[in-house]
Design a protein that fits this description.
Blueprint lengths: L1 E6 L5 E7 L1 H4 L5 H14 L59 H17 L3 E4 L9 H11 L4 E5 L4 H7 L5 E5 L5 H6 L2 E5 H11 L1
Parallel strand pairs: 1-3, 3-6, 4-5, 4-6
Antiparallel strand pairs: 1-2
């Protein structure tokens, strides 16, 4: 069982944290990660796009000209898809893009994502991040000491001071442990886990 250092918000070692191999040393299969990320992204699509077909277009009830004798092509409606201002053929309609992924597959994919960050030594465990007030400058000082650049911070219960202080920093995101997901872990190259959150995630995935 691998160990990593637990540091405080000043980046001073205060202990060790044992990484369970069944969570942080899982064989990585890109096809499973891809499948779960696609499912997560697809479920976020609104699917409210719509175009009007001939049934939805108003007007066009009168035949523009007689069928024969004019020398022009036959036409039955000015709302034909061939006409400017006409209907759309086979255009997009509202739909649900989401598809099901089994719970065990989602769980396995999250283990793989965490294992990927662990193998790259991009996981930092911090005992706590305590901010006296809501101030981005105060958090920026902590981020600099911990070497955060593009980072996902995982907390068991998000502190309001921390959440609001991070809000103005475009490359840092705070997420609760029970909302940890594959897409966010893969999107942010660095993972900072508060010790309580790391323990919670590990126990849940073991």
């Amino acid at each position: 069982m691998a160990k990593i250092q637990v540091v405080d918000q000043n980046n001073t070692k205060v202990g060790d944290f044992e990484l369970a191999p069944e969570v942080f040393e899982v064989e990585i299969m890109p096809e499973i990660l891809n499948h779960v990320v696609r499912a997560q992204r697809a479920s976020q699509r609104q699917g409210t796009h719509a175009t009007k077909n001939r049934a939805l277009k108003t007007g066009g009830g009168r035949k523009p000209w007689r069928q024969k004798g004019t020398g022009r092509a036959r036409a039955g409606s000015v709302r034909s898809p061939l006409w400017r201002g006409g209907a759309t053929t086979f255009g997009p309609q509202p739909r649900d893009y989401s598809f099901k992924v089994n719970k065990k597959v989602r769980k396995l994919a999250l283990k793989m994502a965490l294992s990927s960050r662990a193998s790259e030594e991009k996981i930092t465990v911090v005992n706590t991040i305590d901010l006296a007030e809501i101030k981005t400058k105060a958090f920026a000082a902590v981020a600099e000491k911990l070497g955060m650049t593009k980072t996902l911070i995982v907390a068991k219960d998000v502190d309001k001071n921390l959440e609001l202080s991070v809000r103005n920093m475009p490359h840092i995101k705070v997420i609760e442990a029970d909302k940890l997901n594959v897409y966010d872990v893969l999107l942010y190259p660095e993972l900072v886990m508060l010790e309580a959150a790391a323990q919670d995630v590990q126990e849940r995935l073991k």
